[in-house]
């Protein structure tokens, strides 16, 4: 028995993509996988190629590892967990994908759908809830196509729907999604599932700092630092009690290598008011054990500038002038047919080569990255080795 559990993306995928301002998709995926793992414990071993803290692991690396694990444990099953997105905010609901001609994957997908309906009889299902991944279509996902083990890709709801987003951000929903996943795994292996008592709230990995007892400096002169080990830190409205459930957003120190804010008020013990650029003013809990540290404004450590990745499209490759390098629409598959997938033909040859900042990797297509063209805005480009595209981090 082996439960292959995939967190979908790494913690560094929002920004630029994979999330909405209120919630990086990873925070949801991570919570579901962690809850499922917690419930299953040692009863059923797990395999996780994308950890809760490591930078995004390329899909190929992940499936190589999962397929190797499957060679060793021939009865392994796998699931990749996601939150969905649609341009239309009224699209809602749960859906699960399986590779179209793999009956075991289909069976696993059906079990997910049935268990989801049992747990959430009142919540909407997206379409029929079951999607066969087909080659040459938008459903051709790496995580359903490449696995040799029975595999599903689960979309637990739409970040683009305000109602779904509220669910996706709630600890209760995340916990119950983890329970659904654990129940399906138990059912697959014919192991009785014992309800209740096993799931405890997940705290982000935190470093415990010694508490230095000193008189608090004057307001506005002190800076609070949230450590990079924490991937989710509740931000509360200033007019509500800073308790779980009242949060208006989650800060993600991990994504930025830690976050620092000037303290603008101390409304109560271990709670400070800060001004965030994304969510405005709010309160955060910074008690002992959270890993928050303090310094005076004057000595606040400079944050290192995050490195950026760039891709260079050569003027010529393989003896051919690169006069048309397709820039694909963000919401369409990165392939030349139909032609309406293409937003613009970039012309590296005309400019002696072109360079763009890499804004993200496509989650479903290998060697496809997001860039922003000055002329046409954001889109996908294909940068497989044979194209001669070169990457640089600086
Ligand atoms: Zn995803």
Automatic annotation (TrEMBL):
Name of a matching Pfam family: Amidase_3
Region Disordered: start-end pairs: 1-22
GO process annotations (BP): peptidoglycan catabolic process
Domain of life of the source: Bacteria
UniProt protein name: MurNAc-LAA domain-containing protein
Gene Ontology MF term list: N-acetylmuramoyl-L-alanine amidase activity
SMART domains per record: Ami_3
Occurrences of domain MurNAc-LAA (ranges): 79-185
